[in-house]
Design brief:
307 residues; alpha/beta; Rossmann fold; ten-stranded mixed sheet; 7 helices; 10 strands; 21% helix; disordered C terminus
């Protein structure tokens, strides 16, 4: 799989206006980093989103969502980790993971620590860089990660007891995240910020660990959300597959807007859209368990199935 690396203009489909997202590539903190912004920064500091890509993915693998965040008013950064295979990444598809993905019980706080270190070093460098220190609001940071990147951002939120949560972190968006090590070790109670998990009915290697009894969602403290998209496989959150991009974008931007920007919640954030099979949440917006995994019942606010 390879992704285009040409700069594109992004349009936030869930809004009524057209806002262009400019893309640039920089090297900072020893990392190749792709940056998205709206081009209308002015004197207003923007909340920041850092994206961590999947194993053998790369910074631009989920460009559609990064453009949407930039169009919604965020300053977005995505580094290439050392296992990146596209967008200038030097790794190869034949490279093996540090620990077997099929043996999550063998993982520990040192597993892929370098990825979390990449994010910490990147933020430290950006805060001191004259190009970005005044453009970003470093007290309002959201993390998003896909697959192994989801593992990375959960670690930065305190999923390993030995991990110090990232300063300024307001929310974590875990997109088909490899959460199995935390589930196996029962350490997700240490997560210190709101989390939205996203999975899919065809994401057979990941989503069951999120949704099962005492899986990632159940072990994570509130505020928390779980959205399962119909017919979405593991690559649904990349530019390689586009079928569910609109729904993914809607829930993702609404979640970040509420918890990172502090905006009133978009009503759609707690509605089960037609291409969503499961929506669960326990938060300041209420409690609900909608869809296939809930036995067709709901509790608290959000009862029933909304289209």
């Amino acid at each position: 799989m390879r992704f285009h690396t040409a700069a594109l203009a992004g349009v936030l489909l869930t809004s009524g206006c057209v806002v262009h997202a400019a893309e640039q590539n920089i090297t900072i903190a020893g990392l190749q980093v792709t940056v998205w912004g709206s081009g209308t920064d002015g004197a207003v500091r923007k909340p920041v989103i850092i994206f961590s890509h999947g194993f053998h993915g790369c910074a631009t693998q989920s460009r559609f969502l990064m453009e949407a965040f930039a169009s919604a008013g965020y300053l977005v950064f995505a580094p290439n980790h050392k296992d990146a295979t596209c967008a200038g990444g030097a790794a190869t598809w034949s490279g093996k993971p540090e620990e077997p993905f099929g043996q999550p019980e063998t993982w520990n706080p040192s597993s892929y620590r370098d990825r979390a270190d990449d994010v910490r070093h990147l933020i430290e460098a950006l805060r001191g860089d004259e190009r970005f220190r005044a453009r970003g609001d470093w007290s309002r940071i959201g993390l998003a990660g896909h697959s192994l990147g989801g593992y990375t951002v959960l670690e930065l939120a305190g999923a390993w007891p030995e991990s110090t949560p990232l300063a300024g972190l307001k929310a974590v968006l875990a997109l088909s995240p490899y959460s199995q090590p935390f589930v196996a070790h029962h350490t997700l109670a240490g997560v210190s910020v709101p989390v939205m998990y996203q999975g899919g009915t065809r994401d057979l290697g990941i989503t069951p660990a999120l949704a099962k009894p005492m899986g990632a969602y159940d072990q994570t403290p509130a505020p928390k959300y779980f959205v399962e998209f119909d017919r979405a496989g593991h690559m649904a959150w990349t530019n390689f597959v586009s079928a569910t991009h609109d729904a993914i974008t809607m829930y993702s931007v609404a979640f970040m807007n509420h918890y990172v920007k502090g905006e009133p919640a978009d009503p759609r954030m707690t509605k089960q859209l037609s291409d969503v099979t499961v929506l669960r949440y326990a938060s300041d917006l209420g409690h609900a368990d909608l869809g296939a995994a809930s036995g067709r019942s709901a509790r608290g606010r959000g009862l029933g199935r909304a289209r």
